[in-house]
Q: What sequence folds into this?
């Protein structure tokens, strides 16, 4: 388990990091918490010429309120995100989903930005960011740009982050007072999601006024279950109406098949778990 | 200075915290990979990515030029063309045993087989250079399915053998004279309207032993004796087998198993990598180290289980079993492991389990495939047998409409019938199945759970409850040498011990058992402290080094206490016998008047006495000791058991199945094990807990899968799903003790009990939860997908199962496409 040889740089500002990335060219890799990159390096599935460690840039770990948004630095570890009071209050769903990521050791090293930029469709946080319409702040040589979640996830392990660019911050709108739940289904407690459903509801007078539903591992990217959202709005949060709405969960999905679950089983799970997530959120 | 132990506080039975743990837990451990003699060179093995292929060329030019490289070698370069790895268990005289080379010669026979080896200054340089070795292969068809492998015209793993069948071994109670003919029993049952015949096929999936410390070997050739450090369970066997394999005189070898981080049978082998490291050290005259990566371990360390079991049981309609027929196909993998062929044979004596079976036949056909070889894995043959019988007993209960525990009780050996000679000819010395079962039912609240189950069924709850039962026994304490001889095993089953009484009254105990996590240091110290009446802290246990412990047969098959512990007891008896003579001499009394109790030799009816430490000092000084006696208390013993030990127990599992998702949840697990007298209840409980986790994992989580090209697809811990504490409930375990009569301590083995017992309990429970929905069987591991599909099919809905032969594109490590590592890996 020894990686191939690589150079290592640890910049102390985002500007230095961007410039190191541009100098490194195609073979440069960014390391955040290393929970995905290090195993890949050790198995020699990747052999970058240079690894750029963002761990030396303190501002990338900051979690702060910014008007009607909660801005989370890309290098904030999962542990910080799930424990943060602002996140718990205004982006509860993110806190809940983050608490299901792997195990405590991984959550202390792995980062929100690293997980989202890695864009493994089995990762838990993409569906949350997508459902909650987060914004991604990306830094490049010509400054920063902001990409909405709907445009961020492009394909397997592929995002809107361009060559020479670095994800620096993820900004979540506040969902203060929303009812939320992350329903995760996996083979063992610390395994990746076979399928998972992120649900956030605004309930008014016993019926669902707004709904945000995101699906994990039902396609090459996280998927927003807009059909379910539309079917839920205006409905009471009862078992029957929620289950009927959850039947829309597979619309627009392209479930993968693997040894744990073939596509048809995943589709079945997506419907069942969507119903459960919404009912659990609604309490 | 008479130090008298408190006779009321016996060590035997005390739940002592293990004395080795402080060292192990705080990192003061010394594993093989931590041992680096000066000048050590490091090894990386180039391994075949293909399951079956002819090697057309190996180009080592680039690798040899790489920085730090000392050499790159093929098997011929090592002069090892004629070296074959040993198999110690020819189960039949005509067993087909291909030569397993140290590195593949012209053909590779499983994915992961070594092809070449790089030696360099550092492990990193060796690994870098290994990537530069160019091997060209001409692929051959893989051989993956055992039944197909035995068919006409099948591709042969070893064409020179002319067949993929290694051997077929049969036991027939009619022929052996230990019971009736099962063929007659089946024919009679088929003709009799008052009998039933139940036939089932079960599958024992392939498992990875997954010990914590990867295998490692360091060979230092610079001294007079060549020193081999190895992460092995079997240092003594490794020494002898190194001589057998390479011809180095045994007296020139010293084998050390330092701290060893688990084995579960997975470190019972003698490895091609070990022999390769010896050859390299000899050739280069420098210490050489090989340490495998976890990936290499998953791929190439021997696997366990992998059987197809065809069982037929016959019974009268009143429930009385009349016959049992067992036919196994056992996957050996590409070669035969050290004891691999004998693993199914060990199961032969256990399919009849605790039941009175009048007619029995067992047959195993061992088959070669192009997969990693299989060998012992915790329980070795007995978990497979226990699964088969406990599953089919449940099937028989369903067929007869009987309560499964009652049907078991009707057929099991009653406690007053011990000793009982089984249909295999084994004599079970002791047991009390009624007692263990009654206690387990009580702890489980069996009747209440049956009521809850009925209510859930009636209501049609989304989550259904099943109750899984396993009333197991096993034979352990391997083993009586004569029995092993009758089975053509290539060694005996005795164990050796020595006790050295030091001048200052401390005690060194040397055992031939080789601990790798069992707690020998603590348990053996407790035994010796009681026997000699010395403080627990004064006893030191030495093991795992052929220089200090020259004689032994090591640790496997739950033998350390019931064989090794008895040898220690016998050596202690000899110490006492010698000390008694010196005590009598010093106390000027007749030896017959000397009593020994709690470390004190005293003259009967007087207050005169001497402590054993005083006698030890007197023997050391040797100023005054009896004529005709050597001035030493030190004693050796070798114990060869006359019988196995037969622990048993009743295991009950409350299984919840979510019928909507197929998710299985183990809600509660109760086991009451009868392991005879218990030296240390804490260690025994730890063994049971760990054993349960491994057995339950076979039922619910673990499976080593190969794709249609013979590639191991569950090659990392992302894909090979070991459970963690988060996946298992808190177990309720209890011990009852019917002392063994076959050894002086009354002890039985416990190391494998949990693993052997638990797997069928879980699967029986899962099926019990969904059987009313029409589900008849679910293969292991009973994953949520398998359970869901079984329910769908029972409902008459066909589900299209996409054949899967690749990794998930979205499931972690395996998902990274090495040819397309784009994307932002942050």
A:
């Amino acid at each position: 388990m020894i990686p191939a040889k690589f150079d290592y740089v640890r910049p102390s500002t985002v500007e230095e990091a961007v410039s190191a990335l541009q100098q490194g060219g195609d073979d440069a890799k960014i390391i955040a918490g290393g929970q995905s990159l290090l195993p890949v390096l050790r198995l020699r599935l990747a052999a970058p010429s240079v690894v750029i460690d963002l761990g030396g840039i303190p501002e990338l770990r900051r979690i702060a309120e910014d008007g009607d948004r909660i801005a989370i630095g890309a290098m904030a570890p999962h542990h910080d995100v799930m424990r943060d009071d602002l996140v718990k209050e205004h982006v509860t769903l993110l806190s809940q989903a983050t608490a299901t990521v792997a195990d405590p050791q991984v959550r202390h090293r792995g980062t929100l930005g690293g997980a989202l930029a890695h864009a493994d469709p089995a990762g838990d946080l993409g569906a949350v960011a997508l459902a909650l319409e987060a914004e991604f702040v990306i830094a490049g040589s010509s400054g920063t740009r902001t990409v909405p979640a709907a445009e961020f996830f492009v394909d397997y392990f592929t995002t809107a982050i361009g060559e020479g660019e670095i994800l620096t911050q993820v900004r979540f709108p506040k969902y203060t007072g929303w009812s939320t739940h992350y329903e995760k289904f996996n083979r063992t407690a610390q395994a990746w999601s076979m399928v998972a459903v992120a649900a956030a509801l605004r309930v008014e007078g016993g019926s669902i006024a707004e709904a945000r539903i995101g699906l994990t591992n039902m396609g090459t990217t996280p998927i927003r279950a807009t059909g379910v959202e539309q079917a839920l709005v205006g409905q009471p949060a009862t078992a029957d109406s929620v289950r009927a709405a959850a039947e829309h969960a597979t619309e627009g999905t392209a479930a993968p098949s693997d040894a744990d679950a073939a596509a048809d089983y995943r589709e079945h799970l997506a419907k069942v778990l969507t119903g459960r997530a919404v009912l659990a959120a609604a309490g | 200075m008479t130090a008298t132990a408190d006779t009321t506080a016996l060590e035997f039975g005390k739940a002592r915290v293990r004395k080795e743990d402080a060292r192990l837990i705080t990192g003061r451990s010394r594993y093989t990979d931590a041992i680096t003699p000066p000048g050590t060179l490091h090894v990386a093995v180039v391994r075949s990515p293909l399951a079956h292929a002819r090697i057309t060329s190996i180009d080592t030019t680039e690798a040899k030029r790489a920085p730090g490289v000392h050499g790159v070698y093929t098997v011929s370069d090592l002069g090892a063309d004629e070296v074959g790895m040993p198999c110690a268990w020819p189960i039949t005289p005509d067993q087909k045993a291909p030569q397993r080379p140290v590195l593949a010669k012209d053909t590779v026979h499983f994915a992961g087989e070594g092809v070449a080896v790089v030696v360099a200054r550092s492990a990193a340089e060796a690994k870098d250079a290994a990537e530069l070795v160019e091997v060209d292969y001409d692929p051959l068809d893989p051989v993956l399915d055992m039944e197909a492998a035995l068919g006409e015209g099948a591709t042969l793993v070893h064409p020179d053998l002319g067949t993929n069948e290694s051997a077929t071994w049969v036991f027939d109670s009619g022929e052996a004279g230990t019971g009736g003919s099962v063929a007659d029993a089946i024919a009679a049952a088929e003709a009799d309207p008052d009998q039933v015949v139940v036939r089932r096929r079960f599958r024992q999936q392939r498992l990875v032993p997954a010990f914590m410390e990867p295998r490692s070997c360091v060979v230092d050739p610079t001294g007079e004796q060549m020193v081999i450090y190895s992460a092995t369970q079997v240092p003594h066997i490794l020494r002898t087998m190194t001589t057998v394999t390479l011809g180095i005189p045994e007296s020139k070898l010293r084998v050390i198993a330092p701290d060893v981080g688990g084995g579960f049978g997975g470190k019972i082998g003698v490895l091609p990598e070990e022999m390769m490291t010896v050859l390299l050290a000899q050739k280069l005259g420098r210490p050489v180290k090989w340490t495998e990566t976890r990936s290499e371990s998953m791929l190439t360390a021997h696997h366990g289980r992998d059987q197809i079991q065809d069982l037929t049981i016959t019974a009268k309609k009143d429930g009385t079993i009349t016959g049992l027929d067992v036919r196994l196909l056992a996957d050996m993998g590409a070669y035969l492991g050290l004891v691999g062929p004998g693993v199914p044979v060990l199961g032969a004596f256990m399919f009849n389990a605790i039941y009175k079976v009048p007619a029995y036949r067992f047959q195993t056909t061992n088959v070669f495939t192009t997969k990693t070889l299989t060998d012992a894995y915790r329980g070795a043959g007995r978990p497979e047998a226990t699964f088969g019988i406990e599953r089919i007993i449940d099937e028989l209960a369903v067929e007869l409409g009987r309560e499964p525990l009652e049907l078991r009780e009707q057929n099991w050996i009653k406690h007053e019938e011990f000793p009982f000679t089984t249909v295999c000819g084994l004599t079970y010395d002791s047991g009390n199945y009624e007692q263990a079962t009654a206690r387990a039912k009580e702890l489980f609240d069996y009747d209440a759970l049956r009521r809850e189950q009925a209510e859930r069924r009636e209501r049609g709850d989304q989550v259904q409850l099943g109750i899984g039962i396993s009333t197991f026994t096993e034979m352990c304490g391997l083993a009586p040498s004569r029995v092993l001889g009758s089975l053509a095993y290539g060694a005996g089953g005795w164990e050796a011990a020595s006790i050295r009484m030091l001048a200052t009254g401390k005690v060194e105990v040397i055992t031939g058992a080789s601990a790798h996590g069992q707690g020998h240091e603590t348990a053996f110290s407790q035994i010796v402290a009681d026997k000699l009446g010395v403080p627990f802290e004064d006893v030191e246990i030495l093991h795992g080094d052929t220089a200090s412990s020259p004689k032994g047969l090591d640790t496997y098959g739950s033998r350390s206490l019931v064989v090794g512990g008895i040898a220690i007891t016998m050596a202690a008896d000899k110490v006492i016998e010698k000390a008694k003579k010196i005590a009598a001499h010093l106390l000027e009394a007749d030896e017959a008047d000397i009593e020994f109790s709690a470390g004190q030799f005293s003259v009967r009816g007087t207050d005169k006495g001497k402590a054993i430490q005083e006698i030890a000092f007197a023997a050391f000084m040797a100023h005054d000791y009896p004529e005709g006696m050597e001035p030493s208390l030190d004693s050796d013993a070798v114990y060869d058991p006359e019988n196995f030990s037969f622990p048993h127990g009743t295991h009950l599992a409350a299984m919840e199945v979510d019928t909507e998702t197929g998710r299985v949840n183990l809600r509660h697990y109760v086991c009451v094990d009868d392991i005879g007298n218990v030296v240390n209840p804490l260690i025994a409980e730890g063994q049971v807990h760990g054993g349960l986790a491994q057995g339950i994992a076979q039922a619910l989580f673990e499976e080593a899968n190969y794709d249609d090209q013979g590639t191991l697809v569950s090659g990392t811990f992302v894909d090979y799903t070991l459970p963690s504490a988060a996946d298992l409930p808190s177990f309720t375990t209890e011990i009852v003790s019917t002392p063994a009569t076959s050894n002086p301590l009354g002890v039985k083995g416990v190391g494998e009990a949990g693993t052997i017992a638990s797997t069928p309990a879980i699967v029986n429970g899962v099926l019990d939860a969904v059987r009313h929905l029409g589900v008849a069987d679910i293969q292991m591991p009973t994953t949520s997908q398998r359970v869901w599909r079984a329910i769908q099919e029972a409902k008459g809905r066909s589900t299209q199962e996409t054949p899967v032969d690749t990794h998930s594109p979205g499931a972690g490590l395996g998902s990274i496409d090495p040819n397309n590592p784009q994307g932002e890996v942050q």
